[in-house]
């Protein structure tokens, strides 16, 4: 039996054996994100971005993984994720190790807009000395994987929308007024840790 020597090696083994459920539909808008893992002595960090406040962006100001819409010029969803990561945070995944793919997630733009399918691809990367963010990103931050599983960081997040509000489980990853992971990003993250056999508190 192969001995797992680190948390990143466990991710590598689990994703290698995992067969993701994909959503095939030419009629639905598609997006792709990159989940970047950087190994540390006691585990790994995950890269998140805080999206810039932009009119017309249904995820304006939200916490997310780097990524975006799959364009006509992209060969596939994976290529779109790699392009978006390069554009948004300046990290080239050309030589990075792709660890695997998660289940596709279905949702709606901004919670109530057009139907959307999000594909997520996981990579192991050497943590760069600095990130080169573009105009779509207000801030980028690395978060320890264990922090994301700590019950003290899990909250009920209330998001105001169109005179009403959305209540969703969330994870505080920085400033509690700004850096809360919720919605589609929360679902993708929950699925990722589920593959590792780790569940979120209360889930």
Please provide a written account of the structure:
This protein is of the alpha+beta class. It has a domain at 7-145: Nucleoside Triphosphate Pyrophosphohydrolase (Alpha-Beta Complex). Helices cover 20% and strands 35% of the residues. The protein is built from four helices and eleven strands. It has helices spanning 7-17, 77-89, 145-148, 183-195; strands at residues 29-40, 43-51, 63-64, 67-69, 97-101, 105-108, 115-124, 137-144, 154-161, 164-172, 180-181. The strands form two sheets. Strands 1, 2, 3, 4, 5, 6, 7 and 8 form an eight-stranded mixed β-sheet that branches. A hairpin with a 6-residue loop joins β6 (105-108) and β7. The model has no long low-confidence stretch (mean pLDDT 91).
Please sum up the structure shown.
This protein has 4 helices and 11 strands.
List the helices and strands and how they pair.
Blueprint: H1 7-17, E1 29-40, E2 43-51, E3 63-64, E4 67-69, H2 77-89, E5 97-101, E6 105-108, E7 115-124, E8 137-144, H3 145-148, E9 154-161, E10 164-172, E11 180-181, H4 183-195
Parallel strand pairs: 1-7
Antiparallel strand pairs: 1-2, 1-4, 2-3, 2-8, 5-7, 6-7, 9-10, 10-11
